[in-house]
């Protein structure tokens, strides 16, 4: 499956936005993230703050994925930064 | 001239076509349009006492457009009869350039300010667009909160700021 990472996550994943990843039947977005974090350990600390999308729709870590899906991982955005308040 | 309601673009932003577009939408309805409020976010020269040379905005374009449409739906629910348009620029922006343009039209002025403020607060919360700041002595991603499109607490906070 196709995996896209953005912004800081892209930098931590070798500066590359587009990745591929094999998943087992029954896998979820969380499994895709775990596989990415194994390949690119610098991503691991971001597991708790990352958001995700599947096939260009917002999704959750529990969303099931299948081969051929496109999964995107999104780091936190600027909104909510303390200085904005 | 017709402009899309939602856009993520590398082109320079223009407020007037946005304002004209939302005004036309509301003008054509029962009560008519009485107010248009606009917001322009621009690149500031400093960030926490550091001098900014330029910014780079990176976005997930398809998802950002969905986030903008979601904001439009939220506006429709809270302010029936309002119209809002949101354009965000991505790529390299210099100090003073506009990064986001929003126009809100309503029958009466109080709601126009509210819708405009609500829209920018929600853009900052849920649009997957990231800001990378470049200084004299380094660079930094600006990160606040996780993108959580269904987070009711965040939505209420945006509403509270809009209606303060």
Please describe the structure with a list of short key phrases separated by commas or semicolons.
heterodimer; A: 85 residues; alpha+beta; 5-stranded mixed beta sheet; 2 helices; 22% strand; B: 164 residues; 4-stranded mixed beta sheet; 4 helices; 37% helix
Commentary on this structure:
The complex is a heterodimer of chains A (85) and B (164). Chain A is an alpha+beta fold and 85 residues long. Chain A has a single domain (2-76), classed as Ubiquitin-like (UB roll) (Roll). Helix content of chain A is 20%, strand content 22%. Chain A has a 5-stranded mixed beta sheet. Chain A is globular. Chain A starts with a strand and ends in an 11-residue tail after the last strand. In chain B, 37% of the residues lie in helices and 34% in strands. Chain B is built from 4 helices and 9 strands; from the N terminus they run βαβββαβββαββα. Chain B has helices at 15-27, 61-78, 109-126, 152-162, and strands at 6-9, 35-42, 46-47, 50-59, 83-89, 91-94, 98-106, 129-135, 138-142. In chain B, helix 2 (61-78) packs antiparallel against helix 3. Chain A binds chain B through residues 4, 6-8, 10, 49-51, 53, 56-58, 72, 74-84, and chain B through 48, 58-60, 62-63, 66, 121, 123-132, 141-149, 154.
